[in-house]
Amino acid sequence: MTRPARPPVLGRRTVLGTGIACAVAARQAHAASDLDTVYDTLLRRHVVAGTDGVTRVAYGRWRANAEDRAALDQAIGAMSARRPSTMSRAEAYAFWANLYNAVTLKVVIDRYPVASIRDIKGSSWLDPKAYAGPWRDQRVTVEGRGLSLDDIEHTIMRPGFKDPRVHYAVNCASYGCPNLMGRVWRAETLEADLQNAARAYVNHPRGVTVMPSGALRVSSIYRWFIEDFGGTDDGLRAHLRVYAAPALARALEGAPTIADHDYDWSLNRA
Prior knowledge:
By secondary structure, the protein is mostly helical. It is built from ten helices and seven strands.
């Protein structure tokens, strides 16, 4: 019998008794309520679903609204005060996805207007990778550990959950990225929301395009992180088949060649 996977932790979890466990649960519930009422409201207000299947963010409107900028800071503060090491797997998954996306939104809003998130450089001139974008700067502290966006995605979520759908849950503020959901991730609806996010991306030209030759052009995400999608082209095609709508499923018959990949780094601004 396979043991259920534990959520990623930042330190050793110690059980100190029923009373303390109940108190922790109460604080978690209160923090989750804060998240639902603050961050969720902000997403519903500023994330715009397009008729082209792409959701975009009204960064200019958000930046111009001092109350909403302060509310985003409040939401990030409430999230960073939580203890994901005490959460269930689904709660931790939703927590980290929400935190990643909220911090990314703050990074862009604080520097808006920019044409691309890659125009926002990291702070360390000694680190050439940091200069390529804002992902390596420490931006939030959770359970006493300072974290960058790369830390959240690549040292916590990807290895901790071992689920390729992590790439559909986190959003890097770019047109080529899977959609930013217009509400918070929640444990109760996590599985359905991840499935919907995967289907939306796989069946959009940003995810997969069937070229006139019948070969496939795929998102560069599938190349950059091929190890998360089976490690080979066969593994990637198997992943795509799980979420493909009928037209794409027919195109995937016969193992077509994956001939090209592409990614659009322009900002997903409304």
